[in-house]
């Protein structure tokens, strides 16, 4: 199974990518988590990416294309993968297509998480993130078992700098101009699958199990 997940910020891509990856035992690569790891480790990439991410803008295609090609070149990605937050521009989609061609592989589907604005704003304003393992929580909807601590690794949860309301609005605008054109790109290639990002996690998992059954059976 080779999947791309895209949609506006707060659509639930990260949450579902993680669940699907565990279910199918294939790696999921979250572009945002990888960039945040670079920032924490103060790598050259991290130093440059920090201000861009905090402004709610996109890091340059060349930077993210190289990072993701490294991830996809890993042996564990040969049995399949789930990409969360990559590609996010037409240039990135083209780079991914070329990379896969070079590996004699193709995507099975690009899942578009169609999500309404009130849902996005509610999710992002209450979102808490584990800086260590990347898991997302929500103050009301998906609270951690112990307040302020990650269920998985115990790290202190934080509100991401780019989840501040003004930055969220800018990220949505960037999504509309840069990422929304992927709808047409993947539709033309017959790869587009639309699901509703407004659904709660268990409902959307059920929906995903249905729409992805034809792929999971064939691999
Ligand atoms: P969300 O999906 O909620 O916007 P992510 O964690 O996927 O959050 O991304 C956070 C930020 O990381 C983005 O706003 C952007 O600055 C940067 N980023 C993530 N993925 C990409 C990408 N594919 N291309 C460029 N920048 C990216």
Write up what this structure looks like.
With 219 residues, the chain is α/β, with parallel strands linked by helices. The longest helix is centred in the last third of the chain and has 18 residues. It has a single domain, classed as Rossmann fold (3-Layer(aba) Sandwich), CATH 3.40.50.300. The mean pLDDT is 93. The site of adenosine-5'-diphosphate (ADP) has 19 residues, from helix 2 and helix 3. Adenosine-5'-diphosphate binds next to helix 2 and helix 3.
Keywords:
219 residues; 5-stranded parallel sheet; two-stranded antiparallel sheet; 9 helices; 7 strands; globular; binds adenosine-5'-diphosphate
Secondary structure topology:
Blueprint: E1 2-6, H1 13-24, E2 28-30, H2 31-40, H3 44-54, H4 61-72, E3 81-84, H5 90-102, E4 109-114, H6 117-125, E5 127-129, E6 136-138, H7 165-179, H8 182-188, E7 192-196, H9 201-218
Parallel strand pairs: 1-3, 1-4, 2-3, 4-7
Antiparallel strand pairs: 5-6
Helix pairs in contact: 1-9, 2-3, 4-5
The structure holds adenosine-5'-diphosphate.
Adenosine-5'-diphosphate binds at residues 9-10, 13, 31-32, 35, 52-53, 56-59, 64, 85-86, 88, 92, 162, 171.
């Amino acid at each position: 199974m080779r999947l791309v997940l895209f949609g506006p910020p707060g659509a639930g891509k990260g949450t579902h990518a993680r669940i699907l990856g565990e279910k199918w035992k294939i790696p999921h690569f979250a572009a945002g988590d990888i960039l945040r790891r670079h920032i924490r480790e103060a790598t050259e990439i991290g130093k440059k990416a920090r201000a861009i991410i905090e402004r709610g803008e996109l890091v340059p295609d060349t930077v993210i294309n190289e990072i993701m090609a490294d991830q996809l070149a890993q042996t564990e990605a040969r049995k399949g993968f789930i990409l969360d937050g990559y590609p996010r521009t037409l240039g990135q989609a083209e780079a991914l297509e070329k990379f896969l061609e070079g590996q004699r592989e193709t995507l099975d589907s690009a899942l578009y998480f169609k999500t309404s604005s009130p849902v996005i704003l509610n999710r992002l304003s209450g979102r808490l993130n584990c800086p260590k393992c990347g898991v997302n929580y929500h103050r009301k909807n998906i609270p951690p078992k112990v307040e302020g601590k990650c269920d998985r690794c115990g790290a202190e949860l934080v509100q991401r700098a780019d989840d501040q309301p003004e930055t969220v609005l800018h990220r949505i605008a960037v999504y509309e101009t840069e990422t929304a054109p992927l709808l047409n790109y993947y539709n033309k290639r017959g790869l587009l699958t639309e699901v509703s990002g407004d659904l709660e996690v268990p409902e959307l998992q059920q929906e995903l199990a249905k729409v992805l059954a034809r792929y999971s059976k064939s691999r």
